[in-house]
């Protein structure tokens, strides 16, 4: 199954010490997609953040090597919403605003639960 990974989700391993790729495998997701809009967002965060948040963004940028990159630029949330619809993919995100938009379109959402595991929202 396909999953699109949002910027904040790529930062989960550093911020919460959760292996998102192992958790996604456990949930049955074996195709990990990252749009270029997310990569652009990470590059901006690396430039602008400091301390542990900057480290999390740098690690997230390095983890993209484990994903399939999709050429799709623009506002990351809009790009993710459109790609999820077009590709019939789920989305891994902790962004509440994006989650609500995805749920309105009946797109499966995966998020961090209890700061230690990923879960597919009903």
UniProtKB/TrEMBL annotation:
Q: Which residues form the VapC9 PIN-like domain?
A: 3-115
Short name of one Pfam family: PIN_9
Q: Which residues form the signal peptide?
A: none
Which keywords does the record carry? DNA-binding
Q: Which GO terms describe its molecular function?
A: DNA binding
- Name of this chain's protein: DNA-binding protein
**Origin species:** Methanolobus mangrovi
Q: Which CDD domains match?
A: PIN_VapC_AF0591-like
Q: Which domain of life is it from?
A: Archaea
């Amino acid at each position: 199954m396909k999953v699109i990974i949002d910027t904040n989700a790529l930062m989960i391993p550093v911020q919460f010490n959760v292996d998102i790729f192992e958790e996604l495998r456990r949930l049955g997701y074996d195709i990990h997609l990252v749009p270029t809009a997310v990569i652009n967002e990470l590059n901006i965060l690396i430039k602008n953040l400091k301390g542990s948040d900057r480290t999390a963004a740098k690690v997230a940028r390095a983890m993209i090597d484990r994903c399939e990159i999709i050429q799709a630029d623009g506002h990351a949330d809009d790009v993710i919403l459109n790609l999820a619809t077009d590709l019939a993919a789920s989305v891994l995100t902790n962004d509440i605003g994006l989650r609500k938009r995805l749920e309105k379109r009946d797109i499966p959402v995966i998020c961090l639960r209890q700061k230690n595991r990923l879960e597919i929202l009903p």
